[in-house]
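A favour, since you know our structure tokens better than I do. What I am after is a single protein written out in full by you. Could you add the entry underneath, on a fresh line?


***
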Amino acid sequence: MSALAPQPEPQDTLVLRAYAFAEAAHRGQRRKDDRAFIAHPVRVARLLAARGYDEEVVAAALLHDVVEDTSVTLDEVRARFGARVAELVACVTEDPDLPMGERKRAYREGVRRSPQDARAICAADKVCNVSDLREAASDSAEQVLARFAGGLDAQVKRFSAELSMLEETGTDRSLRDAMRVELGALRTQARRRAGAPTPRQRRTR
């Protein structure tokens, strides 16, 4: 946590409390790439902290998956961390009761209508997600890739729709640029795995 809040004063900062809460909520959970789950929200929070977002946004980034992926409720988040943090977490929480395609569409439309800071959390989350998927594809980790619904092509299509939404809403340019770079690399890997020529290969023929 030192990269998020180096030598904080006082010790009981909002960000450190959010980290401790998220770490406890996600304890024992693993990501699809088999990393400890807490590593993901920490990466998202670090991206936002490095770009100067305030502590409530960074805290919400640490907590952005607790309602969706653990037994924690939004009311608990609100009681412990305040109304603004809870609102940001709510904005980036998917509805697990919806079918997957509808769930993703509803998420995009919800984020589209959300405050700028919530869209920044979404963008940072997607940067990390695409990066993780790109690493798995680069390593040819078939067991990991099989855990992603629809394979690489479906994931590229979904992330492309999310990037379009973030571009249309004028979300943080640096995060959009980072996501575009990661997505371009992932798209190239998907083509290679499918045996299709990459754009560079087509230009040199």
In short: The chain has one domain: 14-196. The CA atoms of residues 66 and 114 lie 19 Å apart. Confidence is low (pLDDT under 50) at residues 5-11. The longest helix spans residues 116-138.
